[in-house]
Specification:
By secondary structure, the protein is mainly α. The chain contains six helices and no strands. The two termini are 17 Å apart.
Length: 146
């Protein structure tokens, strides 16, 4: 395989990896909007309490958290839509600043979420590491073809 075709293949793979991350962000956002309960057992465990104790101590907490998660899910979904768009348009057109935008958005979304979930000892920490690694691999392939 010649160098040019290898660069083209890397471009396609990196684009699809980042599209997959964007779709994952959209899906995660929709989960937060429609399905995520306000408090998970791991939330109470992190705070050194039980769900019953939290509910008794702060009666309006779950209603407030549900609204917070709806807003946060909307931002996740919007970020995912923009990620898919950037992967489809900006990467293939080689727009100036695309690499910087991809790097920063990956660090501030999937990498930060993964890191915080490890810090919290979340039950989902290993699952949430996968999109961060896919994003990183897609970004490395993207910059390696330059």
């Amino acid at each position: 395989m010649d160098t040019r075709s290898a660069r083209i293949r890397a471009r396609h793979v990196s684009t699809w990896m980042l599209i997959a991350c964007g779709i994952w962000l959209v899906s995660l956002g929709l989960y937060f909007i429609f399905l995520r309960p306000p408090l998970l057992p791991e939330d109470a465990r992190f705070m050194g309490s039980s769900l019953a104790q939290l509910r008794a101590a702060v009666p309006g907490l779950e209603g407030w958290l549900k609204r917070v998660f709806i807003v946060m899910g909307g931002f996740m979904t919007g970020t995912g839509v923009l990620t898919v768009s950037a992967a489809c348009v900006a990467m293939s057109s080689r727009w100036r600043g695309t690499s910087w935008a991809i790097a920063m958005s990956g660090v501030l979304t999937v990498a930060l979420m993964s890191a915080i979930n490890f810090d919290l000892h979340s039950d989902f920490r290993w699952l949430l590491l996968v999109p961060a690694l896919v994003w990183l691999a897609g970004f490395v392939l993207h910059i390696s073809r330059r």
